[in-house]
Each structure stands twice: as C-alpha cells, then as structure tokens.
Write a structure and sequence with these properties.
The chain is 5% helix and 34% strand. By secondary structure, the chain is mainly β.
C-alpha cells in the first residue's frame, strides 16, 4: 500500500473539521455501508479475520438486518469506491451515526473498534461523543486503502460497533452534523482531495427487528425514522 505523507494526513483532518475542505466533486459511486454479523470473543480478530474484507464479502452480500436480544457486531465499510476520484484508493472518512440513543431501550452501542491505522477524531453531538447517537467522527489511514473485492471495487473497513438491541431500532449512517462547516459526509482519496457522498442513496443502515438498508443493492430504498425525538435531524 502507498503510505500517506504526515502533512497530507493532518491536512485531511483539519479540512474535515472546518478549515476549508476541498472537494474533488460529487460522485454517487462510493457507498458507506453497514454489515451486521455475530460477535467474536477474540477482540484481536475483529479487524483481522472477522471483517467483510477478510471474508472477501461483496457489499451486495452485506446483512442489513439484526435480531433483537443478541450481542452483535456491525461493521462500517467504505464500499464500491472504484471511481476516477478513488482510482488510487481511500484515505479517510467523516460521517455521523444515529439510533434511539436511550440506554436499555432500542439499540445500545457497547463499544467501537477502529480498524483504520491512522487518526481517529470523534466529535460530540447532541447525544454525546461518537459512537453515541448524534456523534460524528473523522477517521484517516496511514496507508492508502486499495483492497479490491472481486468485481466490487475498492473496499475499506473503517471499524466495528459492538451492539445489543433491547427492542426494535434502526442504526444508520448520517452526515457528520458536528462540523464547523455544517453537516457533511465526506470521503478522502489518497491525494488529499475530499468527495461528497450522495447522502440520499449511498448511506447504509441496519434494522433490528425491522428492515435496514444496503446501499449496494439497487432499489433498496432509504428508511427514515418517523418519531425518535429531538435528536433525529433530517438531512
């Protein structure tokens, strides 16, 4: 893998945090997808042998529905990024997350394992710091991510949430609404350029006791929660 220069990595983070981002243009190709699976008792294997890339799993095969009453892992993956902007690979992401957010009600996120090898810069939202509902994160890699999964293009595993669903709930990726520049979901390529993600079609969700959404399956329509309280901003 190509190693990113330190100044580029730091520049990506400052740009994402509001120091004048530079966009390579809106590209609807890359997806920010979620995949739910059974958990593992070996923490060291979460990012090494348990993740979708290690299993050579294409994004269309990601599971977007989990059961209530089980300990589960939910992987956050940049998928199908083989577009001109990302011909050299993926180097960073900024995004937000939402779910019910009330303890012991709906979904609880019990932990977050970062699989990227660079910088992790969580920022607080109305519900607290990532991975609390309403929080956001800016994550970069030390090395350009260029793993290709079959004909699916470049995939980069960002990390994994440990979750438990007490009742029906929806875990969904959103723009990061805690940035100085306003709500944005961005991917960075290996040349310190940032690209807006199409937030209407390219962001995934996982439903617990209800359908989720796999953005890599054509026609899988977004699900918008109807009543979740004041935290549930619309984008």
């Amino acid at each position: 893998m190509k190693q990113l220069h330190l100044s580029i990595r730091v520049g990506l983070v400052f740009a994402c945090l509001g120091a004048g981002p530079v966009f390579a243009g809106i590209n609807p190709g890359p997806k920010v997808a979620l995949h739910v699976t059974a958990t593992t008792t070996k923490d060291a294997t979460v990012c090494s042998t348990w993740n979708p890339n290690a299993l050579n799993l294409s994004c269309s095969g990601y599971n977007s529905r989990g059961d209530v009453g089980q300990d589960l892992l939910v992987y956050l993956v940049i998928a199908q990024a083989d577009t001109p902007s990302f011909a050299g690979g993926v180097a960073g992401i900024t995004a937000g997350i939402e779910y019910d957010g009330r303890k012991n009600h709906g979904l609880d996120v019990l932990g977050w394992t970062v699989c990227a090898d660079g910088l992790d810069n969580p920022n607080s939202g109305p519900g607290g710091e990532w991975p609390a509902s309403g929080g956001g994160d800016v994550i970069t890699w030390l090395n350009c991510q260029e793993t290709r999964i079959g004909n699916d293009g470049i995939h980069a595993v960002v990390g994994a949430f440990r979750v438990y669903a007490y009742s029906q709930d929806l875990l969904r990726i959103t723009p990061n609404r805690n940035l100085q520049v306003g709500p944005q979901c961005l991917l960075a390529n290996c040349y310190a350029q940032e690209v807006k993600v199409d937030t209407t079609t390219a962001l995934g969700s996982v439903g617990f006791g209800t359908p989720g959404r796999n953005p890599c399956i054509p026609g899988d329509l977004p699900i918008v929660p109807a009543t979740w309280g004041s935290l549930k901003a619309r984008y």
